[in-house]
Amino acid sequence: MTAPTTHVDHELVEAATHVARTRCRGDNHTVAAAARARDGRIVTAVNAYHFTGGPCAELVLIGAAAAQGAYELETIVAVGDRDRGVLPPCGRCRQVLLDYFPGIEVVVGTGDRMRAVPVHDLLPETYVWADHQLDGG
């Protein structure tokens, strides 16, 4: 495992916390995410819960970032509504984050245990989708 990063992007955590407090309403939107793009922009999103399944805030954020032309995300965090704090990504989000952004760091933990870790550390012995695709040539 890679050692945890010592720097936590607190502005990113604050952005996700603000969205969770001001935009998450009811059962359909309960988690907010924020990510920093390589160019410094912060992109935010909320989950879209539905009983048939629905995208987590991290997955909605990937689409929102692409729609804004932010294709290189460096750090991401998810925060629960009702002051639940930082939430770790689910397994599906971990896999998608690894496949889209293999170098991304994910903020996890709370309080003085909050840290940014490489997504690889959240998914050890991972399946890397790109490694198992046939060459197009």
Describe this protein's structure.
The chain is α+β, with helices and mostly antiparallel strands and 137 residues long. Helices cover 28% and strands 23% of the residues. Strands 1, 2, 3, 4, 5 and 6 form a 6-stranded mixed β-sheet that branches.
Ordered list of secondary-structure elements with their pairings:
Blueprint: H1 10-23, E1 31-37, E2 42-46, H2 57-67, E3 73-80, E4 85-87, H3 91-100, E5 105-108, E6 115-118, H4 119-122
Parallel strand pairs: 3-5
Antiparallel strand pairs: 1-2, 1-3, 3-4, 5-6
Give structural attributes.
single chain; 137 residues; alpha+beta; six-stranded mixed β-sheet; 23% strand
Give a short synopsis of this structure.
The chain has 137 residues and is an alpha+beta fold.
Number of strands: 6
Distance between the termini: 34 Å
Question: In percent, how much strand structure appears in the residues?
Answer: 15-25%
Order of helices and strands, N to C?
Answer: HEEHEEHEEH
Average residue-wise pLDDT: 92
The main pleated sheet reads as: 6 strands, mixed
Radius of gyration: 15 Å
**Counting H and I runs of at least 4 residues, what is the number of helices?**
4
Shape by Cα distribution: globular
Residue ranges: pLDDT <50 for 5 or more in a row? none
Content-based structural category: alpha+beta
| Oligomeric state | single chain
Helix proportion of residues, in percent?
A: 25-40%
